[in-house]
Design brief:
By secondary structure, the protein is mainly alpha-helical. The protein contains seven helices and no strands. It is 67% helix and 0% strand. The longest helix is centred in the first third of the chain and has 29 residues.
């Protein structure tokens, strides 16, 4: 078997989708944990003046939701719902830092309130969002996921002659 056939095989595709799902899911887990630990509202809401209590409540709620969705993505459970929610969160994050995606080195866009000096670190949010869309599009090929394994086991049990 040639190297090209190995790296493009069905097994390689399944492992690649697994790694992509796990890494994008863990990004949500870590982000959710950070919101819970810091008790801070999501970045997109920080421009709105909120009381410390409301900031903490939104941080716990958003962080908890991200944590749950991230774990579901990592283990591959309820992907029909978890993957689009993950894409929505990562897409919203990318939209929140649109200027860093379009002009990561501040060469053209000047009139945007910058959150950090090195805005190029936010460019990968576009890559993460694209990965989320790919996971949705190729969900049926991602066979190393808990809901897929459960479905396969249920089909085997129902096909067993009595």
């Amino acid at each position: 078997m040639t190297a090209d056939r190995i790296i493009t095989s069905e097994v390689a595709q399944r492992i690649s989708l697994l790694l992509l799902r796990v890494t994008t899911g863990f990004l949500l887990v870590w982000s959710g944990l950070a919101k819970i630990v810091k008790a801070k509202a999501p970045f997109a809401l920080r421009s709105v003046e909120l009381s410390d209590t409301m900031n903490a409540v939104l941080g716990y709620a958003a962080g908890g939701a991200q944590l749950v969705i991230g774990v579901l993505c990592v283990i591959g459970l309820w992907r029909k719902y978890a993957l689009p929610l993950q894409a929505l969160i990562h897409g919203f994050t990318a939209a929140s830092v649109w200027w860093a995606i379009i002009d990561p080195y501040r060469w053209y866009i000047d009139d945007v309130d910058r959150i950090v000096f090195n805005s190029h670190v936010f460019y990968p949010t576009s890559i993460t969002f694209a990965a989320c869309l790919l996971l949705i599009a190729f969900r049926q090929r991602d066979r190393i996921a808990l809901d897929s394994l459960i479905g396969d086991a249920q089909r085997r049990v129902s096909e067993t002659p009595e």
